[in-house]
């Protein structure tokens, strides 16, 4: 950055952004420190001063990707538990849809590469499992609130069971898009049964009339 002095954090971020671009172009297994350094317009010695090996850079890039993924997940607390849960699901499904957001798809493709790498790299596997748990913890409080608010609709269903079902749906949807079998964007998606029509205020007023 001519004319500017980068902080350590800014330079580290620049390296990770460069690693992201190189990984998308070359895939994880073929990415090299020299390629990342060239993309970041830095010497490879300087990149090594931040990341002592390619493995260390791969782990840091995975953490960077997961942080970016989860920081976009939120639902207004003013919504009902049902509406909040559906909003979180729809946000995640929109991220996985090719037609909706190509940038998100490239990120998800890279995470899929990490899944493959995790089968033989314990540190990567540990990070991926932590990411799954992070997903569960984001959905779990809302699932608890929903089951508590509507117990008759979920007889025998625990929050853990509901979250497991939701994450399985999201992962399957994402995988189909990554593998080239795009599913149209889901609009007005509803995994959960809607309240009975008779409970709607307008319906009740009409019935009384």
TrEMBL record:
Keywords, sorted A to Z: DNA-binding, Transcription, Transcription regulation
DNA-binding annotation, residue ranges on this chain: 32-51
GO molecular-function term, one example from the UniProt record: transcription cis-regulatory region binding
InterPro entries: Homeodomain-like_sf, HTH-type_TetR-like_transc_reg, HTH_TetR, Tet_transcr_reg_TetR-rel_C_sf
Superkingdom classification of source: Bacteria
UniProt domain HTH tetR-type: residue ranges: 9-69
Cross-referenced Gene3D superfamilies: Tetracycline Repressor, domain 2 (1.10.357.10)
Protein name: HTH tetR-type domain-containing protein
Originating organism: Dictyobacter kobayashii
